[in-house]
Amino acid sequence: MQSRLTDREIIFYLRGFAIGSVVINHYLTTYVSESFNGYANGIIAVFFVLSGYGIFHSLSRSGRLDTEALLKYLYKRFIRIYPLYWVSLMITILTTRNSYGLKTILAIPFFQAPGIYWFITSLVQCYLAAPLLFILIRKYGYKKYIAGVFSVMLLVYLLYQFAALPYSRDLFVYRYLFLSHIFLFASGMAVPSIIENHRARLDNGILAAASFVFFLASVYWTREADTLFPSSAIYIAPLFVTGTVFFCLCVISTTPLLIFRRTVVLMGAYSYSLFLFHTVFFIILSRYEIIKGADLRSITLILLLFPVFLLGCIMLEKSTSHLNNILTAGRRACERLYMRYL
Prior knowledge:
Helix content: over 70%
Strand content: under 5%
Distance between the termini: 60 Å
Strand order of the largest sheet: 1-2
Number of strands: 2
Shape: globular
Oligomer: single chain
């Protein structure tokens, strides 16, 4: 019988579930029917919550958030995001002949990059906001903090409703809510404290299953199509954010037994590279007519070739990780030399 997953494994499992859903949805949208559009964009919300969860733990290990700790935090985020991101851009340019402007190349945080890269610039925005959010949690406690996050979210939502502002991604709107990704990330930073204090109440398999169903329903209801009634996605947007956070809370607290544990956890561990390179994977297979659509042959070949693609992503991510270690070692050596001759 499978043992229960640790918190670290369940985080990887959730990320693996999310990236697997994104890969499948992008394939269906591109090669089967555009009627599947919007599911990946919604499920990726899980990444924002889990990123907040991870960043809180990372900043907590630093102890006091002084200037030195802040600079180290920004450096670690930079070497985690940008090297692999730039490799992805180069491969995409070579395979698609697309060109990208300087704002996309630098992932400028006050700009929404095109295609799947919108997620990268949105994530950079979250990372820049994280130190301030961490200070607020430490100063006011998680209860006042989470109440403040949701109060600001509802205020922003009402302002958009009454001012009739456009729901455009160019205006930092995600899932029909202004700065929705920031609210997801900010809530995720409170998840460790909530679990620490309320795990016993949240550790309920039925509650976790219900939260999962509600999350999937909110992903479906907040697509561009008017699923329930005219402009229904706009009215459901706050529930989407709340449902996503609650789903992550319940699953992490319950740590259930889940299917395909090792595979999904492995995918979660390397979800960043899978996200960056999966569209190129499909483009290359399509160009050489290895895949053509939704036929059984194409699906079978994708399933057979996916382990090779996953291995390539693992190698790329480990390579950049080794490069990051070399850069970190170089930085520390320079610091020691500076302190010696100061």
